[in-house]
Amino acid sequence: MKRLPRIAGIATTALTAVALSLSMSACTPNSDDAADRNADQAATADAGSTDSEDAADTADAPGAADTEAASEPTVPDGYTLTDVPDTDLAIAIPSDWTTLTGDDVADPERVADMATALNTTEDDARSRLEALSLYSVDMDEDSSGYGETLNVQMLAASKLPNEDRLTEMIEEQSTADVTLDAGEYSATTTGSGTDAVTQVYDIVYADGSSVPSAYVVLPTADGSETAYVAINATSAERRQELIDAILASV
User: Fold this and answer.
1) Mean pLDDT across the stretch 57-65?
2) Which of helix, strand or coil describes residue 43?
3) What global pTM score does this model have?
4) How far is CA 138 from the centre of its chain?
5) Helix 108-117 to helix 122-131 angle, to the nearest 10 degrees?
6) Does residue 107 sit in helix, strand or coil?
């Protein structure tokens, strides 16, 4: 079994930073950031419109019903729709990856396999499984020398982060020997038409090597929680493939 570089640890740290940032934001609704976001999102209603006119306009919009009917999740070939424990969410994960959850904490063999794959201790592997909803790893040997990873953390937040907030969360993960080069933030939709956001970035090491990474952030079906999916891939193209598969499957 091959050994992964420190990228797996960075992904877990990333999710922890997200949780802390969102928790602080939820506790300070009157902060300047919240005020700025509210101001940016404010919209003025048309004074001449009535509820009946709005309903008529919506009903007459060409193709609106067809677009809604056409929105349906799909799972690409080579992927398996995998339930995120204790949620109403399921996402596409490569079928040949190994997925672990909190239920595996008590399984010494599974924990040992995960620790070996992530080049970490068994105690650290258990801690990650306890903190995250699931952790999926490509444990097969390949020419890249390490396995790709994907992990999910559920947060009790109903709103998606804006670009400034998500970029800030990513940048706060930098350590002495690693920098995080934030890339494109995109507002998008899932296969079922639900709003979601993505943020791509590269984890850059002191020797100049880098790992293409990303967040996919999307709500659960009932809107009570938000899933932060952290991805580490072997190439920018592979990263985009994983992003597309997750979005299409929800």
Assistant:
1) 40
2) coil
3) 0.72
4) 17
5) 100
6) coil
